[in-house]
Design goal:
3 domains, D-Maltodextrin-Binding Protein, domain 2, 11 strands, Arc Repressor Mutant, subunit A
Length: about 300
């Protein structure tokens, strides 16, 4: 059994640098030490762990399976130590608590900037660490404890979470202003399936929603281009590369005035609910509980 007290952060950082560069000289430079000192530290780390971490080659280092595994552990330890240092700095400056929030793109683009600004104005001693993620990744992060709170779409199952409605949004078909659909007051999703689509990357709840709707209609969604952001979809549509489906609140008003048209979808599934959730039975900090209750009580917009 390894005596953890024999491990130090500098040696772990050196291990990570050596694993990334596979070069002792570069690793030593990154750790601001001599090559001989770096070599001694890595050898001592191998002695402490009783594992061969590298194969020394004439032109560099080659990671062993043990080296790859322990380097990954070292990264997590260093990240935790960095977060600890940031937290200590925050606490010394009057911050009373941290909340880890994961949220899908729809929430980040449309609602969270204003909602978090209001919350933090009333709770200035709270620090919120927010990460944008796909809905299923958000749910998993909450379930396994990497996030205190998650915001996600209503078509992604969250059986292990306590969930409440957060916000409503409305999906529209986005087309160039010279497109055949542009003049319609509303449109059925089925009527859009003859056209090429610009869509989000695989795994997004929005792509899953419209792909399922196409399958239920007995048709294929003709995806021409996939991008990673709503802004990317808008740019591709603006360039005439297809049409797309987005929440209306995610489209910049200037684009609608200048070059694009947003047509309401008449299908019932186009009215969505975003949920906010925490792990069932979780012991939330007072700050996380306050944020959860606040997000769950924000006045929902009319779908």
């Amino acid at each position: 059994m390894i005596n953890l007290l024999q491990l130090d952060l500098l040696s772990l950082r050196l291990l990570v640098l050596a694993a990334e560069s596979e070069n002792l000289t570069k690793a030593a430079d990154g750790a601001h030490m001599t090559v001989s000192a770096a070599s001694k530290r890595l050898a001592e780390l191998e002695r402490i762990t009783d594992c061969t971490l590298f194969v020394r080659l004439p032109r560099g280092l080659q990671l062993t399976p043990a080296g790859r595994g322990l380097a990954e552990h070292a990264r997590h330890i260093l990240e935790s130590a960095q977060r600890m240092a940031h937290d200590a700095s925050d606490f010394s400056n009057g911050v009373r608590g941290h909340v880890r929030l994961f949220a899908n793109t729809s929430a980040v683009i449309q609602f969270l900037p204003g909602d978090l600004n209001t919350f933090l104005a009333a709770n200035p001693h709270v620090r919120i660490g927010m990460e944008e993620a796909l809905s299923d990744m958000t749910i998993q992060a909450v379930a396994d404890g990497r996030a205190d709170i998650g915001i996600f779409a209503d078509n992604v199952p969250a059986p292990d979470l306590e969930i409440r409605p957060y916000r409503h949004d409305r999906l529209v078909v986005l087309v160039p202003q010279n497109h055949p659909l542009a003049g319609k007051p509303r449109v059925s999703f089925v009527d859009t399936l003859d056209y090429d689509y610009v869509a989000l990357n695989q795994g997004s709840s929005l792509l899953n929603r419209i792909s399922s709707a196409a399958a239920n209609a007995g048709k294929l969604l003709k995806v021409r281009i996939q991008v990673s952001s709503f802004d990317g979809i808008c740019r591709m549509i603006d360039a005439g590369l297809g049409i797309g489906i987005l929440p209306l609140g995610s489209v910049q008003p200037g684009l609608l005035e200048r070059s694009l048209a947003a047509i309401p979808l008449e299908d019932p599934w186009a009215a969505r609910t975003l949920f906010v959730g925490v792990a069932q039975g979780a012991r939330l900090s007072p700050e996380a509980a306050n944020l959860f209750n606040y997000l769950a009580s924000v006045e929902p917009q009319t779908p």
